[in-house]
Amino acid sequence: MQNSILNKINSPKELRLLSPKDLPQLAQELREFIINIVATKEGHLGASLGVVELTIALHYVFNTPNDQLIWDVGHQAYGHKILTGRKDQFHTNRQLGGISGFPKRSESEFDAFGVGHASTSISAALGMAIASKLKGDFEKQHIAVIGDASIAGGMAFEGLNHAGVTDANLLVVLNDNAIGIDPSVGALKQYLTNVKKGTQRRNNIIEALNFDYSGPIDGHDLDAIITQLKRLKNIKGPKFLHVITTKGKGLKQAETDQVKYHAPGKFDAKTGEIFAKSALRQPPKYQDVFGHTIVELAKKNKNIVGITPAMPTGSSLKYMMAEISECAFDVGIAEQHAVTLAAGMATQGLIPFCNIYSTFLQRAYDQIIHDVALQKLPVIFCLDRAGLVGQDGATHHGVFDLSYLRCIPNLIIFAPRNEVELRNIMYTAQLGLGQPIAIRYPRGRGVTLDWEQPFSKIEIGKGTQLKKGKNLAVLSIGSIAKNVTEAIENIDVSHYDMRFAKPLDDTLLHQIFKKYSTVVTVEDNAIKGGFGTAVLEFASQNNYQNIIKTLGIPDEFIEHGGVEELQKQVGLDVKNLTKYFKENV
Ligand SMILES: Cc1ncc(C[n+]2csc(CCOP(=O)(O)OP(=O)(O)O)c2C)c(N)n1
């Protein structure tokens, strides 16, 4: 681009040399840059477009990276990445070997804190602010930028509550666009809307927590934001700036259809039109099988309720919210609350399906143990996005659930091999198990499905043999069975889908250990503590001397990339599995 300002900006230092009158043009160019690259390379779009002016203003006013700037969740930080020296790498965003889609400390000194999960920014920034104070540095600024959906998460409140009784040099910027991935929910959202409309006279909530509150201001007005940030820079103690923005700002469709353009996939950068996906008949997504099946079941069983923490679209609970709205609940980014809410409902005889992504359920660990399992409440956990999730990367892979759930008493853990099994276990669970169950299934699609096929009951704790062979036994759990099946097509081995990580099918395992000298376990979960470990424990407890190999996710964080690329990296793709079995028979 001729006379491009963005082309000349390689760091915030250079940005700060610009005259304020150049900044609107820079904003325009930054938007175009983001749109052009995300249009072809995919990624999160709307959130970053909404904070273009805010991003420029923050780096213009504050002395980053010395001042600490923390983006909550971080999916809105593309502009930040581009202005902080990663413009030329931005086309590798979220790809294998490329830059991460989220701020990451190891990637840049400007990424003050690694993020991906919501509602952490205030606590982290407060921690930094207290550290500065203890070191006698009273100049350093600590800024948390947090969205209106994330600030409703419990941890954000814990941070605000603590900050309000400190004199730490903390600035919380609320980026209020009234939407998360789906429209924001809750009483706080209504309150903030009233503040914006002027029907709530002052923002008393934030002031009551001892913050110096200012706003709301127009987050697309560079002069207004810069003026406020400069003023706040000189005010000591906890401060709060309420900024109003439009998610998707600058791309018409993204402003209008904010849910779709959160992460639209490939689209035409000029017109904004999303490119249609292949028209070929594809198997349904697991999430949609969950979404439609719960509606089907709930129409017959009035006790069924559905719960999602802020992921109605991602989990497909949106179908139930549309059809049986009184029984389906989006509780906001509140995984802990979602789990204990489900527990409370279960005490009253309701049958809660609590759908939480595997990675986000990590947030609610004590609630699973203390509120659900200890009381043996029959909550049905549906863990979507289990296993490797792809481009979202290390913060989002659902590769720990088998390990972190397996040690909890009273909990059944099931992993469907395909969508048919998902439907059948959902059916089985709502019939009443008398205890909680976790059902973990992956992102994406498995097999084509006959929706008319009647449900069949799954026997708890029973595995099944998928292939008979001579040399060794392969034991898989969940949808990774697909790769195993393909890998051993021409290899003479037995394949068992064990289905339950807990309780294990002891009878079947005894048969297997008596018949085969070598047993190989395959899972898309951490090897440590996962399904393979369960089999090792079984063998040890029963004094089996067989050779046992455990395949799965190694003891390291797996970065971003395509799911197949990452499977290849950890040896769980068809080719590597074939090679492995050929070498071991
Ligand atoms: C603990 C947790 N739960 C759910 C998510 C999924 N998630 C990613 S972004 C997002 C919405 C964030 O909305 P908001 O805080 O308003 O920020 P904005 O997108 O408007 O910048 C959600 C629910 C997450 N990242 N972390």
How would you summarize what this structure contains?
With 585 residues, the chain is α/β, with parallel strands linked by helices.
Percent of sequence in beta strands: 15-25%
Mean pLDDT across the residues is 96
Question: Which small-molecule species are bound to the chains here?
Answer: thiamine diphosphate
Q: Strand order across the biggest sheet?
A: 7-6-8-9-11-10-15
List the quaternary state of the chains. Answer: single chain
Count of individual helical segments: 24
**Cα shape:** globular
Termini Cα gap? 60 Å
Number of E strands: 17
Radius of gyration: 25 Å
Instruction: Summarize the biggest pleated sheet.
Output: 7 strands, mixed
Class of secondary structure makeup: alpha/beta
Low-confidence stretches: none
The percent range for helix content is 25-40%
List the helices and strands and how they pair.
Blueprint: H1 12-15, H2 23-41, H3 46-50, H4 52-61, E1 68-71, H5 78-86, H6 121-134, E2 142-147, H7 154-163, E3 170-176, H8 187-197, H9 204-208, E4 212-218, H10 222-233, E5 239-244, H11 252-256, H12 286-300, E6 304-308, H13 312-315, H14 318-323, E7 328-330, H15 335-347, E8 351-357, H16 358-361, H17 365-373, E9 380-384, H18 401-406, E10 412-414, H19 419-431, E11 437-440, E12 464-467, E13 473-476, H20 481-487, E14 494-497, E15 500-502, H21 506-515, E16 518-526, H22 531-541, E17 547-553, H23 563-570, H24 574-584
Parallel strand pairs: 1-2, 2-3, 3-5, 4-5, 6-7, 6-8, 8-9, 9-11, 10-11, 13-14, 13-16, 16-17
Antiparallel strand pairs: 10-15, 12-14
Helix pairs in contact: 4-10, 6-7, 12-19, 15-17, 20-24
The protein binds thiamine diphosphate.
Thiamine diphosphate (TPP) is lined by residues 47, 73, 75-76, 117-118, 147-150, 175, 177, 179-181, 247, 310, 333, 335, 360, 363.
